[in-house]
Write a structure and sequence with these properties.
The strands form two sheets. Strands 1-3-2 form a three-stranded mixed β-sheet. It has a two-stranded antiparallel sheet with strand order 4-5. The longest helix has 40 residues. It has 351 residues and is mainly alpha-helical. It has nine helices and five strands, in the order βααααααββαββαα. It is 67% helix and 4% strand. Helix 1 packs across helix 3, helix 1 runs antiparallel to helix 9 and helix 7 packs across helix 8. This is Solute carrier family 25 member 44-like. It holds the Pfam family Mito_carr.
Length: 351
């Protein structure tokens, strides 16, 4: 799908390489390369996720930097990757489900909305939002049990009031003990609120990403329109056609715009869904059955958070989560678009 983002008064159009839909992909290459690329992304961002999780379950508020230094000082650098093996094992199938659901839904919904006569920019935002929603719901079927296990491992070794009384040797041991204590449903603790957190977050993110891209490209079109009025000499990054007043960005410029748009969308999603993510983390970390009593409900978890630090307690870990989501979104979208180009069946048609 070409993006033609320009201010109407400038009569300027931006042509970028066509979007690659589901039918254009070599599926085996897409999933194989995707597993490798996103495993690397997960490894890079994992310490930030762990710090965020520690902040969310702590009863006292500490900054992300102080929390990270405290972990390294008292538990060693390896503690920043506690539970990573378990998380990685779940990331691969979860990402595969996510990417498949995302591309299939986006392709089908995009075609359907355009056929209904909806303008292309609006159709693109709708398709992206619905695709993000369905992809998040599909991925949570795999990701929630992995999240429960990895987060238990993340908080192990912290203050007793913040962590589970069970001691886990590794991910398999944690899996076995959770099932023994709380049954299979223990692995899906927080599944409902995970859907409420990640599904709207993904819908907001993908829709925001679509809108942000158009805004950024529109700004670039206006900028180069003004430069053309002053001089016919353009830079190397973006060239303007001599005949049709069109701007044709190179691959580096396209990636830069995608990264900036992704960071903007990630920041907005983090802010909107932060309280739900904090509640979800608390529910997943606490033991289910303790001394014959069930674990706290969502309502009790919210009341405990407010008692500990007021409504701002629901935003504990916002800094690391904002940074994590922005960096993850920027890295993910540039990696994802690069992955799609590597996996396209007909490379020549992309030029």
């Amino acid at each position: 799908m070409n993006i033609r983002a320009a201010e109407e008064e400038s009569a300027q159009e931006i042509y970028i390489p066509a979007d690659i839909d589901w039918e254009m992909l070599d599926k085996s290459k897409f999933f194989f390369l995707g597993a490798a690329l996103f495993s690397g992304v997960s490894a890079t961002l994992y310490p930030v996720v762990l710090v965020k999780t520690r902040q969310q379950v702590a009863q006292a508020q500490l900054s992300g930097i102080r929390t990270a230094f405290s972990i390294v000082k008292h538990e060693g650098f390896r503690a920043l990757y506690r539970g990573f093996g378990t998380s990685l094992m779940g990331t691969i199938p979860a990402r595969a489900l996510y990417m498949a659901a995302l591309e299939v839904t986006k392709s089908n919904v995009g075609s359907a909305t355009v056929n209904f006569g909806i303008p292309e920019p609006t159709a693109s935002a709708i398709a992206n939002a619905v695709a993000g929603l369905s992809a998040a719901m599909a991925a949570q079927l795999v990701w929630t049990p992995v999240d429960v296990v990895s987060q238990r491992l993340m908080v192990q070794g912290t203050h007793p009031s913040c962590s589970s009384p069970c001691r886990y040797v590794n991910g398999i041991d944690a899996f076995r003990k959770i099932v023994k204590t709380d049954g299979p449903k223990g692995l899906y603790r927080g599944f409902g609120i995970s859907i409420l957190t990640y599904a709207p977050s993904n819908a907001v993110w993908w829709a925001s990403y679509s809108v942000a891209q158009r805004l950024v490209w529109g700004g670039i079109a206006c900028y180069f329109r003004k430069k053309e009025d002053e001089s016919n000499d353009n830079g190397n990054s973006i060239s303007s056609s001599n005949n049709n007043n069109a701007i044709r960005p190179d691959s580096k410029t396209v990636m830069a715009v995608q990264g900036v748009s992704a960071a903007m969308a990630g920041g907005v999603s983090a802010l909107i869904t932060m309280p739900l993510d904090t509640i979800k983390t608390r529910l997943q970390v606490l033991d289910g059955e303790e001394n014959g009593r069930r674990g706290p409900t969502i309502g009790q978890t919210v009341r405990n958070l407010i008692k500990e630090g007021g409504w701002l307690a629901c935003y504990r870990g916002l800094g690391p989560r904002w940074a994590s989501m922005s960096m993850s979104a920027t890295t993910m979208i540039t990696t994802y678009e690069f992955l799609k180009r590597l996996s396209a069946k007909n490379q020549e048609s992309l030029v």
